[in-house]
Amino acid sequence: RSGKGQTSHNCRLMTAWNAWSEWPLIHDPAFWAVAVPAVLMMGLSKSGFLGGFGSLAVPLMSLAVPVPQAAAIMLPLLLVMDATGLQQLWKHCDRALLRRLLPAGLLGTLVGTLLFGVLSTRTVAGVVGALTLLFLAQRLAFPPRADHAPPPRPVGFVLGIASGFTSFVAHAGSPPFNAYVLPLRLNPVTYAATAAVFFAAVNLSKWIPYAWLGLIDGRNMVTSLALMPLAPIGVWLGIRATRRIDPSWFYRLAYAGMALTGAKLLYDGLR
After folding, report:
1. Average pLDDT, the chain
2. How far is CA 228 from the centre of its chain?
3. CA torsion sign, 59 to 61 to 234 to 75?
4. Could you tell me if 179 and 131 are in contact, meaning their C-beta atoms sit under 8 angstroms apart?
5. Which neighbouring-strand residues pair with 116?
6. Band of residue 63 on the pLDDT scale cut at 50, 70, 90
7. What one-character-per-residue DSSP string does 48-59 give?
8. CA distances from 139 to 113, 129, 259 (A)
9. Is the pLDDT of residue 4 over 60?
10. DSSP assignment string, 174-234
11. Per mean pLDDT, which range of 40-44, 87-91, 159-163, 254-258 is the poorest?
12. What is the CA radius of gyration of the chain?
């Protein structure tokens, strides 16, 4: 009986595996090993907490799948994260800052659509990583004082385009966005809300170009659906942390995230 019971158990496991394997999603265990922490990391970043770390999500997933496929899988998850963040933060955003940056960000997605396939993902990653590290070096060499004027508006427009472009290519729009917004020293909740609205609009604008480029297919979308329950968890945890953390520590973590992101993207570009 024991042998028959073990055989029956093995048959049930085999049936379950066969049913799982028939789903049009990615079955490689290596993908899931990197996808789960990548989604949680992106959720924390989308909340404004650990800002910049979300740019590591697609490079992390690209250890198992090509970068365009990783970006396509992440897109529906970003929309769920955006909805979760907007529900919590919408009323706290800086609308004047959004009017300055959002048109530039949407223009950046258009540039990304036109240049997709012309510039390699590695080239884009290397450029973004180098600029991020240069920004941090400048901030360390010349620390901001309370009487410093905010960055000029033309700089914000250029960085907004860069943020939309890098967000389109690899969901790595945080470093250019942070390069302009962090020196403004906004309240952490205001920063998180402004970033949430900006990237929600940018991510929504990617759907038609991604479909036109052939990145929206059944396998990617089913894989994204399987990861969907994780999407709001990181955002929820990050929002709770953002509302409780001391502003000085918030910005230390934000700059640490930019440093790690910049180093990883530069490494990917030079590899």
Report:
1. 78
2. 15
3. positive
4. yes
5. 119
6. confident
7. TTTTTGGGGHHH
8. 32, 15, 12
9. no
10. HHHHHHHHGGG---HHHHHHHHHHHHHHHHHTTHHHHHHTT---HHHHHHHHHHGGGHHHH
11. 254-258
12. 20
Type of residue numbered 75: L
Choose among 256, 238, 233: nearest CA to 89.
Answer: 238
**203-235 as b/e: b if 16+ CB within 10 A:** bebbeebbeeeebbeeebbebbeebeebbbebb
Buried b (16+ CB within 10 A) or exposed e, 89-127: beebbbeebbeebbebbbebbeebbeebeeeebeebbbb
Instruction: Tokens for 154, please give them.
Output: 């033309």
Cα dist from 165 to 124, 125, 187, whole Å: 9, 11, 26
The predicted-structure confidence for 23-34, as pLDDT tens digits, reads as follows: 567 878 888 988
- Mean predicted confidence (pLDDT) in 34-52: 75
Task: Tell me the per-residue pLDDT of 197-231, one tens digit each, with 9 for 90 and over.
Answer: 999 999 999 999 988 888 888 888 889 998 998 88
Q: Which backbone phi and psi does 79 adopt, to 5 degrees?
A: -65, -40
Task: Provide DSSP, 116-144.
Answer: BTTB-HHHHHHHHHHHHHHHHHHHHHS--
Taking CA 45 as the corner, what is the angle to CA 167 and CA 60, rounded to the nearest 5 degrees? 65
Retrieve residue 30's tokens: 């290596």
